[in-house]
Amino acid sequence: MATNPIAPPALPLTVDDVRMAAMRIGGSIVRTPTLISRTLSELTGATVYLKFENLQFTAAYKERGALNTLLQLDEATRAKGVIAASAGNHAQGLAYHGNRLGVPVTIVMPRPTPTVKVMQTQSHGATVVLEGETFDAAYAHARKLEAEQGLTFVHPFDDPRIMAGQGTVALEMLEDVPDLDTLVVPIGGGGLISGIATVAKAADRPIEVVGVQAELFPSMYNRVHGTAMDCAGDTLAEGIAVKQPGGLTAEVVAALVDDIVLVSERQLEEAVSLLVQIEKTVVEGAGAAGLAALLGHGPRFKGKTVGIVLCGGNIDTRLLANVLLRDLARSGRLARLRIRLQDRPGALFHVAKIFHEHTVNIIEVYHQRVFTTLPAKGLITDIECETRDREHLDRLVEGLRTGGYEVSTVELA
Prior knowledge:
Layout: H1 15-25, E1 34-36, H2 38-44, E2 47-52, H3 62-70, H4 75-80, E3 82-85, H5 89-101, E4 105-109, H6 115-123, E5 127-130, H7 135-149, E6 152-153, H8 160-176, E7 182-186, H9 191-200, E8 208-214, H10 219-225, H11 247-256, E9 259-263, H12 265-279, H13 289-296, H14 298-301, E10 305-310, H15 317-330, E11 334-342, H16 347-357, E12 361-368, E13 378-386, H17 390-402, E14 406-409
Parallel strand pairs: 2-10, 3-4, 3-6, 4-5, 7-8, 7-10, 8-9
Antiparallel strand pairs: 1-2, 11-13, 11-14, 12-13
């Protein structure tokens, strides 16, 4: 991939475009902090700095590109209004700044879009049109409305104005932490990493740019490497679950990005959980992809001074709760034990005594007498419990087995 430190003139974006974007949008977006994480640095072996783009007003970096684009439209175009297809952060960023500037905004969303996202977008003053079951169907309808109503389509990533706006993230990071030698950036359509790589490769010293994609949606990885891995599935990183990356962004990525790594769903879940526990900050799956890369590819980044973009914080609260509980289960602090008992008085009492002896808190008990392959006098009991750590759980299981019980743990995928 990228070897040339200077962007070729043929690319659709230059560092001057990004600098001009920074001048345009300055004062209208949050200049988010870039802060060191000492705990994550110790955990990963790299010196880790976090760029908190989840602190933008709409909780995502997408505001930058949307605002940069709106500010370059002439008055007549602004008066007619703009349109986009999005079920995520681009919709909210465009709606918020369009409303602030007095530009009518129409957003086309797929019908299955969660109600909370529809309401958030409408709360910023946008007209929301629900059309189609997929993003592709919503996109096609948006282009149809663009032609019928004389609106201006604002692409979520494949537009030099969008890319330039997103690149202002890197200008701020390098201004705040001049010693950064590696930037780890989530890739969906490629707008963010295109802008960031343009800035990084124009620096007066080598700065490595590494993209991150979910294993379930390796679209840019396929495009650059000529592979044909499937792009499908329910990924936690829905913000970068893009089946077709941009044509313009792919040019920039191929020329300037040094590497693209893939991360698993488990690594994404761990990263979201760690950021809540360690940094006390909420990020969505895509926003945690950079940290997931460090967790999954540790030797690749060890010893480097790494800047990670926490690109968004819009995660459903129920999904976040599920991720945190699953992380507790994987670490052994939350467990479900399946225990075989004899169906006689006092059986559960004697089991509970062993939990008490090991100072383990019982959260829930579920008896199963009917739907089991055991004899009629046997039963299965599932006990959900809280422990201090994996070693504490192991001691409990050993205590139950010493007491004569058959015990197994109900494991997560």
